[in-house]
């Protein structure tokens, strides 16, 4: 009896339906449309942050710390000209512009979400295929995964972060490592069940080579559940990054991410709520959008699991 | 459900235990700046352990509110005409917490252990010919040459404080931590209730005999007016303030500056400035490796930086900071501006010029920054910004404080885990003169991390130790400051003050270099 | 049954051994040096080297591992580098708060989430269903510490109903114990309410479409009885699974919740130990959590046979 009955179900599903109808179905699903639309918006905001009336998000200004939203500051350039800048969302404890930090923060937070999802899926897929297909490797890989899985994810992440110099790569690695075992288990279970299918057995009998077999029969079956799994990993990655920052071991504070803007602002929650409120709202909505996208994808790609 | 069952079990078991445990009438609950994890104030210089030391130990001498040395455990002392022999007599009725009397032998052993660890103590020992206990209550210290360091050293107010311990404890190897917490101070540590990471509990020592004089600074009668003191670990600053406002705790030693508006706006709470000399921030370059092995590069920093930016970024409220270029603390007898003109004014052009002369090649400087200590976190970005404007390239590397501590101990080049620059803070009482100030120690390998090396500075410090006349001491201190400008062992980033936040009904908090809990009263 | 349990317990040994090796290796590769942390602020290189020697950190990795593993087999978790106490004692002193928090959290989560999930499934597609599902997605989307601060702001600071922080041992009185547990447990339960409610709804929904439910309806049985006796019981396996996984995952949330509410539990002990590079304590804690995880998984599997007699071990 596996601990993940729900994750076993997609194995039985047929390969992906033809692309066109699928795309059409996805677009017609309002949940997917809203989720994807919001994420696209956030990605665009992150990419075009320099053109959206922002300042350098790391430029500090000790004289104007913790100012409320709407505070106006005169900035003197080196040539002596002065301009007035309006801090739409106020400033933080170092006088940095919260609006700019939130916008640039979209880059880091989304980068983390995407890279964590991609990396854990890629590594998990590789290990899962190996474990599922090459019998002698099954035992060692799965025992290692059991071991990793038994370590509480957040503790594993804390330990991994302290392994490296604090920074984006360390944080990504820290969130990826605990996610891998679940992906491996999922992929392996799919591989095992697909192997039993008559058409795959026939292909093996006919002497189809392993790479071809993988590409033609096994990989297609894993795509749908992996995409769904990937969205949930992405959502949790954004949250875990925030928690690591909260514990003081996340991305260094000079690089803005929603998590560390909130973590820095949390001590001032009652006096200057704006430093935690705005990144909090954006983070919450983004995670919500990713989750909605995941739910919608699952409903569409795998109708059998609708509603879960 | 296994857990649910255990809850029911606990609930059932608790029914029998419902009889309330009567709390003593006068319990003071305080949140200190850190949790007490180590309990040997001689072994570590951590301020929280010094504070712990003032609870359970007593000192031979102490500084009063005016900064003068006053006897504390010592009743009387005599000095021979050649000022080389000091004889001390202990007060009557001094007891250890286990009920045994305090003896001269205990004190001699304690001074020895302290002097083995403390930098001032080590210096002092170079003057000491020998120490001996004459009888149960009298002991003698013989000097090789006159020095003002002996009495001042025994009254040293901050880390490491020469606390007196029983001989059996004081004979612990100075490099090992003690495990017996018997003192003779006004409070007793409840070892059974000490939970690192949660709380440490002290109760009044009933047999403590305070001096007859009123309390003044760290001197005078240590009259305890509380039955029990609990130091609680609340790591979340906001939560500590919330708890104080809600009356769940009585006192916060170091409330976060940005939360002070919240405290000022509440009628039930007051802020007490207990430490008139305050604290200082300091920046320490690593003198061993490039580029700070070149004094010109260090000098460039003294031009590029300015104190106000740092103080604004960390403290914010000008009521609680003061730019202060005096190396031996503004407001102290040795305070002087000599040799400081033109420095710390963010003269970026001058900084760039010096860097050019020094041939600085633009290799990034590794600046260690801690992300988990609120009082230090904001220093890093300010340093980076100012130094970069002054022509440096800065690679700010963030980590938790403990990683900074382990990394700064390494002498390796930066690509092998070494470092160039780091920030820290200390209580002003630690740097009142050139001998005490540990960053002024320029004895090469023997100096603390950063390892600065300068024979001339060491000679000046030695002269200071030998000088007994205050006027001449001041002249030496000025010479030290002028030499500092050339060799720049460290850079002061300004003076700041942290008020204690307490409920209104807490009175009697003493003005001193360390927060102490005798004389403190909790009114109904 | 007993044979099955025994086999499962035996199978857990290699898993724990792997955890032990992983954790050991990972910690020894970290750049932080516990000796420098412990030696204190102004320690010289010699003093640091001395501390390293006393802690046995100067020995080779295999030797260090052998010593640790040997002590473990004798039931000796070792002594904390930092706290100078035996780790067994340290952990024992911290278990009660964490266990209480975990138990209260799961209690709240199960009591709230299962009825919500059942009702949502029963009124499938209604506005009620949509609200329950929407709120549950929201529950996943907010970091635990934000929920904690919000609850504190509303219920402690504004309304004054609960203490802001702290933990009171059960031995000091049940009233105070529960009073201080409500907010942290509620904070932590939000994400589990979301998780369990969704799972309950989905599995009840699936069961409601089965033939025997239709049969029961056709026989005119009361709806409530159908819902709770037939549907919920048959939907129990995935629900129990998700509750079990929840308990196993709880430790992550406990770390944050204990920090926010200043609860002296195992979560904070772990964070403190990691930050202080207290190797033996971290090793012991992670090994213990892994053991708990393995045990809970076993318990989940055993409960399956309770709910579904077809599953026999």
Automatic annotation (TrEMBL), chain B:
InterPro entries linked to this entry: Peptide/Ni-bd, SBP_5, SBP_5_dom
Cellular localisation: Periplasm
One of the record's GO molecular function terms: peptide transmembrane transporter activity
GO cellular component entries: ATP-binding cassette (ABC) transporter complex; outer membrane-bounded periplasmic space
GO BP field: peptide transport
Keywords assigned: Signal
Gene3D superfamilies given in the database record: Dipeptide-binding Protein, Domain 1, Dipeptide-binding Protein, Domain 3, Periplasmic binding protein-like II
Domain of life: Bacteria
Family named by the database record: Belongs to the bacterial solute-binding protein 5 family.
Protein name: ABC transporter substrate-binding protein
Organism of derivation: Methylobacterium indicum
From TrEMBL, chain C:
Transmembrane segments: 9-27, 99-122, 134-157, 177-197, 235-262, 282-307
InterPro entries membership: BPD_transp_1_N (IPR045621), MetI-like (IPR000515), MetI-like_sf (IPR035906)
UniProt main location, coarse: membrane
GO cellular component terms attached to this protein's record: plasma membrane
GO biological process: transmembrane transport
Protein's membrane topology: Multi-pass membrane protein
CDD domains tied to this protein: TM_PBP2
SUPFAM superfamilies linked to this entry: MetI-like
A Pfam short name: BPD_transp_1
Organism for this UniProt entry: Methylobacterium indicum
Protein's name according to its UniProt entry: ABC transporter permease
Places the protein is found: Cell membrane
Protein family (similarity comment): Belongs to the binding-protein-dependent transport system permease family.
Domain of life: Bacteria
């Amino acid at each position: 009896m596996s601990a993940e009955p729900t994750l076993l179900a997609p194995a039985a599903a047929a390969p992906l339906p033809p692309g066109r109808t699928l795309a059409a179905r996805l677009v017609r699903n309002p949940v997917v449309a809203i989720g994807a639309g919001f994420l696209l918006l956030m990605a665009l905001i992150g990419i075009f942050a320099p053109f959206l009336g922002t300042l350098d998000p790391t430029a500090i200004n000790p004289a104007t710390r913790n100012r409320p939203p709407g505070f106006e500051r005169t900035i003197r350039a080196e040539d002596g000209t002065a301009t007035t800048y309006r801090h739409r969302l106020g400033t933080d404890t170092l006088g940095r512009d919260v609006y700019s930090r939130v916008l640039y923060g979209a880059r880091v937070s989304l980068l983390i979400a995407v890279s964590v999802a991609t990396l854990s899926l890629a590594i998990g897929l590789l290990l899962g295929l190996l474990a599922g297909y090459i019998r002698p490797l099954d035992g060692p890989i799965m025992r290692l995964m059991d071991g990793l899985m038994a370590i509480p994810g957040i503790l594993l992440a804390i330990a991994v972060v302290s392994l490296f110099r604090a920074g984006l790569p360390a944080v990504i690695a820290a969130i990826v490592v605990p996610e891998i075992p679940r992906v491996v288990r999922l992929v392996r279970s799919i591989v095992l069940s697909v192997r039993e299918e008559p058409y795959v057995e026939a292909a093996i009998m006919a002497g189809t080579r392993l790479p071809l077999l993988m590409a033609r029969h096994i990989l297609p079956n894993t795509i749908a559940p992996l995409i769904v799994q990937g969205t949930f990993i992405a959502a949790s990655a954004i949250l875990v990054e925030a928690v690591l920052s909260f514990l003081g071991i996340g991305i260094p504070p000079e690089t803005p991410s929603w998590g560390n803007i909130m973590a820095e602002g949390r001590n001032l929650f009652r006096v200057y709520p704006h430093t935690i409120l705005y990144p909090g709202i954006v983070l919450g909505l983004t995670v919500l959008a990713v989750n909605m996208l995941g739910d919608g994808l699952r409903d569409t790609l795998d109708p059998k699991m609708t509603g879960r | 459900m296994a857990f649910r069952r255990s809850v029911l079990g606990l609930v059932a078991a608790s029914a029998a235990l419902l009889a309330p445990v009567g709390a003593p009438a006068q319990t003071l609950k305080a949140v200190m700046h850190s949790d007490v994890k180590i309990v040997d104030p001689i072994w570590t210089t951590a301020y929280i352990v010094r504070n712990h030391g003032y609870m359970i130990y007593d000192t031979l001498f102490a500084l009063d509110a005016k900064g003068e040395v006053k006897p504390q455990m010592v009743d009387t002392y005599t000095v021979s005409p050649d000022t080389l022999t000091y004889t001390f007599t202990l007060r009557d009725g001094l007891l250890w917490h286990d009920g045994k009397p305090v003896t001269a032998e205990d004190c001699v052993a304690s001074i020895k252990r302290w002097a083995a660890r403390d930098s001032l103590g080590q210096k002092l020992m170079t003057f000491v010919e020998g120490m001996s206990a004459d009888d149960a209550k009298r002991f003698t210290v013989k000097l090789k040459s006159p020095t003002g360091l002996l009495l001042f050293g025994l009254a040293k107010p901050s880390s490491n404080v020469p606390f007196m311990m029983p001989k059996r404890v004081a004979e612990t190897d100075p490099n090992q931590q003690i495990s017996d917490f018997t003192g003779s101070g006004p409070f007793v540590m409840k070892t059974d209730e000490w939970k690192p990471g949660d709380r440490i509990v002290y109760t009044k020592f009933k047999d403590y005999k305070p001096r007859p004089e009123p309390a003044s600074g760290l001197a005078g009668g240590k009259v305890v007016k509380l039955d029990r003191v609990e130091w609680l670990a609340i790591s979340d600053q906001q939560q500590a303030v919330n708890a104080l406002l809600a009356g769940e705790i009585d006192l916060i030693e170091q409330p976060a500056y940005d939360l002070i508006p919240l405290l000022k706006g509440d009628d039930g709470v007051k802020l007490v400035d207990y430490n008139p000399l305050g604290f200082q921030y300091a920046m320490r370059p690593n003198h061993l490796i490039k580029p700070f092995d070149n004094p010109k590069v260090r000098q460039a920093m003294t031009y590029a930086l300015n104190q106000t930016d740092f103080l604004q970024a960390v403290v914010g409220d000008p009521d609680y900071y003061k730019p202060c270029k005096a190396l031996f603390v503004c407001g102290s007898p040795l305070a002087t501006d000599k040799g400081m003109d033109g420095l710390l004014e963010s003269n970026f052009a001058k900084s760039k010029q010096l860097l050019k002369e020094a041939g600085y090649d633009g290799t990034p400087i590794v600046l260690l920054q801690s992300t988990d200590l609120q009082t230090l976190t904001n220093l890093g970005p300010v340093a980076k910004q100012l130094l970069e404007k002054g022509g440096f390239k800065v690679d700010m590397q963030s980590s938790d404080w403990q990683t900074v501590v382990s990394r700064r101990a390494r002498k390796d080049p930066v690509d092998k885990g070494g470092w160039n620059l780091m920030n820290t803070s200390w209580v002003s009482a630690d740097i009142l003169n050139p001998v005490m100030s540990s960053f002024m120690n320029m004895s090469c390998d023997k100096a603390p991390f950063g390892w600065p090396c300068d024979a001339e500075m060491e000679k000046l410090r030695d002269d200071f130790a030998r000088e007994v006349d205050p006027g001449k001491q001041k002249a030496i201190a000025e010479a030290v400051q002028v030499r500092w400008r050339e060799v720049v062992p460290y850079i002061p980033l300004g003076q700041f003050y942290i008020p204690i936040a307490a409920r209104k009904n807490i009175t009697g908090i003493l003005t001193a270099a360390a927060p102490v809990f005798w004389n403190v009263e909790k009114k109904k | 049954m007993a044979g099955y349990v025994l086999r499962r317990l035996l199978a857990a040994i290699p898993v724990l051994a792997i955890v032990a090796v992983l954790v050991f290796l990972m910690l020894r590769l970290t750049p932080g040096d516990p000796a420098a942390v412990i030696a204190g602020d102004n320690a010289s290189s010699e003093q640091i080297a001395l501390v390293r020697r006393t802690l046995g950190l100067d020995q080779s990795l295999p030797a260090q591992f052998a010593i640790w593993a040997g002590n473990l087999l004798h039931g000796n978790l070792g002594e904390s580098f930092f706290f100078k106490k035996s780790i067994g004692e340290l952990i024992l002193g911290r278990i009660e708060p964490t266990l209480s928090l975990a138990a209260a959290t799961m209690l709240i989560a199960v009591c709230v989430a299962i009825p919500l999930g059942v009702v949502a499934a029963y009124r499938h597609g209604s506005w009620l269903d949509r609200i329950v599902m929407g709120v549950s997605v929201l529950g996943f989307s907010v970091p635990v510490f934000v929920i904690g601060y919000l609850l504190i702001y509303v219920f402690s600071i504004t309304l004054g109903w609960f203490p802001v922080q702290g933990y009171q041992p059960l031995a000091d009185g049940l009233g105070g114990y529960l009073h201080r547990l409500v907010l942290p447990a509620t904070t932590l339960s939000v994400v589990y309410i979301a998780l369990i409610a969704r799972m309950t709804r989905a599995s009840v929904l699936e069961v409601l479409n089965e033939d025997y439910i239709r049969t029961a309806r056709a026989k005119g049985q009361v709806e409530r009885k159908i819902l709770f006796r037939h549907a919920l019981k048959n939907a129990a396996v995935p629900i129990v699974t998700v509750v079990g996984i929840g308990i196993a995952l709880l430790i992550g949330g406990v770390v944050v919740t204990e920090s926010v509410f200043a609860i002296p539990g195992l979560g904070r002990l772990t964070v403190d130990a990691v930050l202080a590079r207290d190797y033996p304590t971290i090793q012991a804690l992670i090994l213990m959590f892994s053991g708990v995880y393995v045990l809970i998984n076993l318990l989940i599997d055993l409960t399956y046979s309770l709910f579904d007699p077809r599953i026999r071990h």
